[in-house]
Amino acid sequence: MPRIRVEPLGIEVEASRGETVMDAVGARGYFWPEGCDRAGECTNCAMEVVSGLGRLSGMGRHERANLVRQRGARSIEDPRLRLACQAHVEGDVVVHKRGVIAVHAGGGGTETA
Ligand code: FES
Questions:
Q1: What is the mean pLDDT of the chain?
Q2: Residue among 83, 70, 68, 109 at smallest CA distance from 20
Q3: Separation of 1 CA from ligand 1 center, angstroms?
């Protein structure tokens, strides 16, 4: 199973292949900042991919258009900026997202920090 490490919280969760980063982390007991019910429109869930960029699904037209609309054309120059609600996990990745917090104990993640 793919593993997602989330910095700076320092957690690691397992994901099902094809699950979005946000769904995988959320299902294992963590809050991920969002603002459009995972529709790919608000960009509040945007994360930096630290490693494993090629192990996420490619950026689709919808994600690209909303990043440009919300954050400007330069936002898509760096491919490491992805929307966690749109990026599907194909293998191990490390991402950085401030604001991810544990919402209840025993969610299945591993605190490694
Ligand atoms: S939650 Fe709004 S773009 Fe991902």
A1: 94
A2: 83
A3: 24
